[in-house]
Amino acid sequence: MDKKICPICGKENNCAHENKRDSNTCWCMDVKIPKEVLEKLKNSKKDNTGGCFCRSCVEKFMAAK
């Protein structure tokens, strides 16, 4: 399990925590993800990497909302 990998697209998720940076600097701290979008993201996982979703996938799912 590589927690640095997005479970949807398989690309690096750029998670600050997993990259040993201050979690407060992570891109996800500035994004509000509606519950229904979060559920769609969770249901779209292709792999169980244990990692966060990447910004690109989150933005795609939010645009399709």
TrEMBL record:
Q: Which Pfam families match?
A: Cys_rich_CWC (PF14375)
InterPro entries registered for this protein in UniProt: Cys_rich_CWC
Q: What species is this protein from?
A: Psychrilyobacter piezotolerans
Q: What is this protein called?
A: Cysteine-rich CWC
